[in-house]
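Acetyl-coenzyme A synthetase: structure tokens wanted.
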Amino acid sequence: MSDKTYPPSAEFAAKAHVDAARYDEMYAASVNDPDGFWSEHGKRIDWIKPFSKVKDVNFDFGNVAIKWFEDGTLNVAANCTDRHLATRGDQTAIIWEPDEPGDEAQHITYRQLHENVCKMANVFKNLGVGKGDRVVIYLPMIPEAAYAMLACARIGAIHSIVFAGFSPDALGARINGCDAKLVITADTAPRGGRKTKLKDNVNQALLHDVDDVKCLVVKRTGDQIAWRSEGDYWLHEEIEKVDADCPPEEMSAEDPLFILYTSGSTGQPKGVVHTSGGYLVWASMTHQYTFDYHDGDIFWCTADVGWVTGHSYIVYGPLANGATTIMFEGVPTYPDAGRFWAVCEKHKVNQFYTAPTAIRALMGQGNDFVEKYDLSDLKVLGTVGEPINPEAWNWYNEVVGNGKRPIVDTWWQTETGGHLITPLPGATPAKPGSATVPFFGVEPVVLETESGKEIDSTEAEGVLCLKDSWPGQMRTVWGDHDRFEATYFQQYKGYYFSGDGCRRDADGYYWITGRVDDVINVSGHRMGTAEVESALVAHAKVAEAAVVGYPHDIKGQGIYAYVTLMTGEEPSDDLRKELETWVRSEIGPIAKPDLIQWAPGLPKTRSGKIMRRILRKIAENDFGSLGDTSTLADPGVVDELIENRMNR
Ligand code: 6R9
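Answer:
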């Protein structure tokens, strides 16, 4: 970790929304008088009925309740479309860049966006979707994904986006999990020159357990697809039947806007619930300040709308701010490793936001791919998803940013709705690898891991918690408020527990050290080790499995699986491939184990608990310091595992 600092230039700071002095002033106001601060900043969005109550929050385990702006009413879609018609109806809202560089990009104005959203909302209504109903969105990165999100918001339906890389089983579980009435998908989805059969996946997902779920299909490629016997509709046919008049539903600030499933340390993924008012205030405010977004700027977040980053920084934040936001259908390395920079040049991108894993992968391809392109429009660079190693930070800064663009390393989570710890580009001197300081209204604390005691000294190391709420905080787990409380409020009483470890340095800067629970971070995607394990043991030849993360040069962490076979089954390379394919089909390609080690036995305590600490060490190829192994039922198992370790 380097402690070299990179302060914003005086020139940048002078034009920025927030400079250092203003940050101090606003931050102090936000924590000293949250009600006053948020009653002011809550007005940044349009309310139908203004709120009079700002905040009502209880973090006490057993009684956790979080409400912001609760008596206000609004419509989120109207804030992202109608609101801009008078002032910027002809400005581009969305630039869509297709997978094939030769195919034409689309520029969708705010007026067109409004019309498309209203029409899609009317289609949803015709298919029986109303306020409070759930709609699953299983789409590639096409404008219809944004229309569908906003169409739900317009009529008060709750969307749950499932990343198009998830398998039919994972999709089915999410459709069931929220009792969706409608799934919207596409025929097939091109990405990186290959195609995913989305409609086929939906058909498979809807085979089991799911009745009465309608399916609306966007014609993306025109590829041949199979139709179910009933309940399937083409979007382009249904659109013909509706007009563009769809009054926005008046929603309460605390009505749910969306559900988004994310992995945790135990069990299956949980449905994170975000509500309308606080979330939109948070997404739009962080978008404006963290990226120092100004009117007329072209903003590009390379995430997929299937992840929270796409929700907050492709759709809701930018569109609430009247920004021009880019939606990119492809991948960073297709047709070659210059694609990001080609798109930046082509669309004159001003703010560029991506993940460390992409930066590392592109860094490995050499500087020529970057230097070919004119990146002079770039003003701010951002990263998200995992800690960024200083080498990647330096490359991003020097090669992409030409040493002149501030880098914002934004720490946040699906649960937090938007950035919590991040530099502001005109205010905060950056330190490579540190997410730096809290955003307005955010009060991070470092607790001693074991005792849970708050560490008062500036320099601290332990687990990262939040002392109080912020408007963008998740409100509950869909259908399971007890799980919400148990996951985030039980272990450290009175705080929101992030699941991350961190260090605070002498300047009060936060350095996220990674998850302290059984969640691993693979290419910036969260994966519960328990999920991969349950997929593995669902295979007929597998008796037991234990999954841990290990350091991976590009992905940040790789998936390392220890597998014990059923008696009579023989390990082989074919079986290894079979298990890889199996996990892909159970969850999706992102969950495929990178390394599988055959384990005749797993290290267990006498009470039968798997000692993951030891498995992690072996996977990290760091078995010199295994610590106390005296409680193991059979210490011999460990020597065998070390002997045959896969990561050397
Ligand atoms: C937005 C998003 C959340 C987890 C989080 C942490 C890791 C995200 C980070 C970071 C270090 C950053 N994380 N941003 N770690 N520095 N700038 O990624 O949400 O998918 O829910 O993941 O990602 O471990 O707890 P999500």
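The chain has 21 helices and 30 strands. The radius of gyration is 24 Å.

Cheers.
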